[in-house]
C-alpha cells in the first residue's frame, strides 16, 4: 500500500489530485447527462459520435500550440484559464436547459468550446504533474493520476444517475460547473510547479519545430505515439457507444447506461492500482503492447455478448487493460523527455492520443449508421490485435525494449 500511494506524500500532488478528482466527477456527470440528452432528443448514434468528435477535435488544431505555451508560460496560469472557460460553458448549458432554449447545435458548439479550453489545459496539466513529485516517483504519480480519473468515471455516472432523475440534465450540468472550483482553489494553493520561463529567443513556430524534431529523432517515442494513436482511435468508440448498447441491446434506461460506465470504470481503477503498486516492472513497452492486444479481444467479446453479467465482466477487464496501456504509455513518454521540452513532447502525444478520439468516434459513428455499433467494435478490436502482432513480429522493436 505504501508503494501504491507513494506520490501522496507530496502536499502539492495531493492538492492537485483532489482538485482534479472533484472536477473529473463533475465532468463525468455532465458526460452522462449530455449523451443521454442528445440520444433522447435525436435518437441518433451519429450525433453522439459528432458530439464526441467536436469535444476532442480542437486537440488536432491547438494542442501542439498548447504544448509550446506550456513551455513558455506558468502552467498554473494556463490551467486556471482553462478551468474558467469550462465552468462558464457548463453554466451556460444550465441556463439553456432551464429556459427550454436548448437545441442540439448549441450542445455541439459548447462541446467544441470546452475542447478548445482542454487543448491548452491538457498539455499544461501533463507537464505540471512531474514537477510536483521527485523524478523517481513519477511512475507512481502518473498511475495515481489515472486512478483519480477512473474513480471519477465510476462515481460520476452513479451520481449522474441520481441527479438526472431528481434534478434533470440541468442539475448534472450545474454540479459540473460547481466542481471546477476545486481545481481552481488547488492551483492557487500550490507551492511547487512554478515555472520561471526564460525570455523567448525563438518564435512560436521555431519552438514548435524543435519539439517535433525531438520526437522525430527518438524512434522509441515515435513508436509510442503511433501505438497511442491506434489505441485511442479504435478503443474510444467502446465508451461512446455504451448508450447505444444500454438502449438498443440491453433495453435499459439512463441508469443502465450508468451501470455500464461504472463497470468499465471499476476495471480501470483496478488496472491503475496495479500499475501504481507494480509500475516499476521491466520492459513496460512490451507489456503495454500485449495489453492493448488483450483489450482488442475484450472489446470484440463485449460487442458479441448479449448477457448483461458477461458484458459487465468484459467491460471491467477492458477498463483494466486499457488503463494499464495508457498509464504505461504516459509514464514512458514522461520519463524519456527533459523538462524544458516536456510541454511540447506531451502535446505531440496528446495530439495522437486525444486527436485520435474524435477521428475514431466520427468514423465509428458513420460506420454504425450503415452497419451496427457491435459490428464496428468487433472490427476495431481485430485491428488492435493485428497492430500489436505486427509490433511483436516486426523488425523494429524499440518500443518493446523500453
Output the keywords.
15 helices, mainly alpha, Growth Hormone, Chain: A, 402 residues
Question: Summed up, what is this model?
Answer:
The protein is mostly helical. It has helices at 11-42, 45-56, 58-70, 75-98, 104-128, 138-179, 181-189, 204-216, 219-240, 242-249, 254-278, 284-304, 308-335, 339-370, 373-393.
Write the layout of secondary structure elements.
Elements: H1 11-42, H2 45-56, H3 58-70, H4 75-98, H5 104-128, H6 138-179, H7 181-189, H8 204-216, H9 219-240, H10 242-249, H11 254-278, H12 284-304, H13 308-335, H14 339-370, H15 373-393
Helix pairs in contact: 1-2, 1-6, 1-7, 2-5, 2-14, 3-5, 3-8, 3-14, 4-5, 4-6, 4-7, 5-14, 6-11, 6-13, 8-14, 9-12, 9-13, 9-14, 9-15, 10-11, 11-13, 12-13, 12-15, 14-15
Polypeptide structure, described:
- This protein is mainly alpha-helical and 402 residues long.
- The chain has a single domain (6-401), classed as Growth Hormone, Chain: A.
- Helices cover 81% and strands 0% of the residues.
- The chain contains 15 helices and no strands.
- The protein has helices spanning 11-42, 45-56, 58-70, 75-98, 104-128, 138-179, 181-189, 204-216, 219-240, 242-249, 254-278, 284-304, 308-335, 339-370, 373-393.
- Helix 6 (138-179) packs antiparallel against helix 11 (254-278).
- The longest helix has 42 residues, at 138-179.
- The two termini are 26 Å apart.
- The model has no long low-confidence stretch (mean pLDDT 82).
Amino acid at each position: 500500500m505504501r508503494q501504491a500511494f507513494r506520490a501522496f506524500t507530496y502536499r502539492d500532488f495531493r492538492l492537485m489530485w483532489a482538485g482534479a478528482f472533484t472536477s473529473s466527477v463533475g465532468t463525468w456527470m455532465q458526460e452522462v447527462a449530455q449523451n443521454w440528452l442528445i440520444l433522447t432528443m435525436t435518437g441518433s448514434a451519429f450525433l453522439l459520435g459528432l458530439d464526441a468528435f467536436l469535444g476532442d477535435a480542437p486537440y488536432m488544431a491547438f494542442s501542439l500550440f498548447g504544448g509550446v505555451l506550456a513551455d513558455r508560460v506558468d502552467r498554473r496560469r494556463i490551467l486556471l484559464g482553462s478551468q474558467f472557460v469550462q465552468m462558464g460553458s457548463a453554466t451556460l448549458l444550465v441556463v439553456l436547459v432551464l429556459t427550454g432554449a436548448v437545441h442540439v447545435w448549441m450542445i455541439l458548439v459548447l462541446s467544441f468550446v470546452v475542447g478548445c479550453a482542454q487543448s491548452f489545459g491538457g498539455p499544461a496539466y501533463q507537464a505540471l504533474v512531474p514537477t510536483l513529485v521527485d523524478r523517481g516517483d513519477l511512475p507512481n504519480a502518473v498511475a495515481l493520476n489515472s486512478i483519480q480519473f477512473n474513480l471519477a468515471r465510476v462515481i460520476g455516472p452513479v451520481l449522474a444517475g441520481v441527479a438526472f432523475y431528481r434534478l434533470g440534465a440541468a442539475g448534472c450540468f450545474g454540479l459540473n460547473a460547481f466542481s471546477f472550483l476545486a481545481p481552481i482553489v488547488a492551483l492557487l494553493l500550490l507551492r511547487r510547479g512554478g515555472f520561471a520561463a526564460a525570455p523567448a529567443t525563438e518564435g512560436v513556430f521555431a519552438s514548435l519545430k524543435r519539439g517535433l524534431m525531438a520526437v522525430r529523432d527518438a524512434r522509441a517515442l515515435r513508436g509510442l505515439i503511433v501505438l497511442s494513436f491506434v489505441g485511442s482511435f479504435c478503443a474510444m468508440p467502446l465508451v461512446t457507444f455504451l448508450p447505444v448498447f444500454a438502449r438498443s441491446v440491453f433495453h435499459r434506461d439512463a441508469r443502465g447506461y450508468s451501470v455500464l460506465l461504472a463497470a468499465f470504470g471499476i476495471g480501470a481503477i483496478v488496472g491503475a492500482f496495479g500499475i501504481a503498486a507494480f509500475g516499476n516492472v521491466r520492459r513496460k513497452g512490451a507489456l503495454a503492447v500485449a495489453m492493448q492486444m488483450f483489450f482488442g479481444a475484450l472489446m470484440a467479446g463485449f460487442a458479441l455478448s448479449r448477457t448483461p453479467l458477461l458484458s459487465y465482466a468484459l467491460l471491467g477487464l477492458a477498463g483494466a487493460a486499457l488503463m494499464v496501456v495508457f498509464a504505461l504509455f504516459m509514464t514512458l513518454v514522461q520519463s524519456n523527455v527533459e523538462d524544458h521540452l516536456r510541454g511540447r513532447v506531451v502535446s505531440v502525444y496528446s495530439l495522437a492520443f486525444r486527436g485520435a478520439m474524435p477521428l475514431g468516434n466520427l468514423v465509428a459513428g458513420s460506420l454504425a449508421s450503415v452497419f451496427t455499433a457491435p459490428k464496428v467494435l468487433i472490427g476495431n478490436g481485430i485491428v488492435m490485435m493485428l497492430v500489436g502482432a505486427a509490433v511483436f513480429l516486426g523488425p523494429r522493436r524499440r518500443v518493446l525494449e523500453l
